[in-house]
Amino acid sequence: MNAKTKSDAIELLDEWGNAEHAFLTRMPDCMLDFRLGDDGQIELASIGEATHDCIMQACYPELDEAFATAEFDETGLGYSAKGHEQIRKAVALEHARLMDRPPRGKEAETAIGREIQKQTGAASVVIDRIVRAAATKRLRSREGEGKKPN
Question: Of 46, 62, 63, 114, which is the most buried if we count CB atoms within 10 A?
Answer without folding.
Answer: 63
